Protein: MurNAc-LAA domain-containing protein
Organism: Streptomonospora halophila
Amino acid sequence: MRTKPAAPGAIPLIAPFMAAAVLALPACSATNGDGTPDPSAAPPPSSGGSGSAPADDRGSGNGEGSASPQGPLAGTTVVVDPGHNGGNADAAEEIAEPVDAGHGSKACDTVGAETDDGYTEHAFNWDVAKRLRGVLEEDGAEVVFTRDDDEGVGPCITERAEIGNEADADAAISIHADGGPASGQGFHVIAPGDLEGYTDDIAERSQRLAVDVRAEFEENTGQQRADYIAEDGLDHRTDLGGLNLSDVPKVFLEAGNMSNPEDAADLSDPQWRGKAAKAVAAGISRYLQDEQSGEGE
Ligand SMILES: [Zn+2]
C-alpha cells in the first residue's frame, strides 16, 4: 500500500528546466578550474521541486490552461482542508500545544486514525483532497489547500480555519476518516453546532452544505450513513475549532470508519477514493450553485 502519493507531474516538468540550466552553464562561466562545466553549480532541485506546481502557476499569458477559469463553478473559491498531517506522529509535543478552539482549548492538531493494516488517515485525507481539487478546478473553482504536502506538521486547527477565512471561501470542507468503534460502519458529515458569537454566522449555510455533501456522497459512493452516529448521517459539534473559528460555511466529512474492516477496505482502495472525491465535489457544487441562484436562502 502506498502511503506517500507520488507527484507524477513533478519529474517530467522539472527535467527540461534542469537540462536547460545545465546546458546554459558554460555561458555563465560556471566551470571548474580546468574549464569543464561544474555540475554542482546547477541550481538545487529543491528550487523547483516543491510539488505545488499547479498552485504556483499564476503566470499570465503564457499558458493556455491558465486563462480565466470556465465552468459551473467559475468565480467561486473552495478551501479544502486535508485533516491531520504525516509529520504529526513525530511531533507529539508540538501538535499537543493547546490552542483556543472557540469553546475551550483543544490540541493544535492530532495524529488521526488508521486502518488495522496501517493505512493512515492523513494519507487518505491527502489523497482524496488532491482528487477533489482536480474535480473542482475542472469545474472552474479556485481551490485553496490548508497544507502543502503530507509530510509536514500541522497546521493547527486555528490556522486551518483562518486559511478559509482569509480566502473568503464560498465553501470549506475538512476531509477526514473516522476512528470509531470497530463495529460501526458508514460515513457522516459534521456541521457546526450553535455557538453564540462563533458559529451563528455560518450555521445555516453550513447545514445546507452538509445536506448537499451527504446527499451526493450517499448516492455516488454507495457508502451508508454511519450507524454509530445520528440516523440522518449528520452530526453537529461545538468542540471543533476548525468549525467554531470559521467565518465561512464549513463542514467536516468523515468518509468512513477506519476501524471497521469493510470501511477500511473501501478507504484503502484508490478507485473508491476517486469516487469519493467526485461525490464530495458534486455535493459542494450543488451547494454553490444553489446559493448562487438564491435557492439556498
Ligand atoms: Zn480526522
In short: The chain has two domains: 10-50, 77-292.
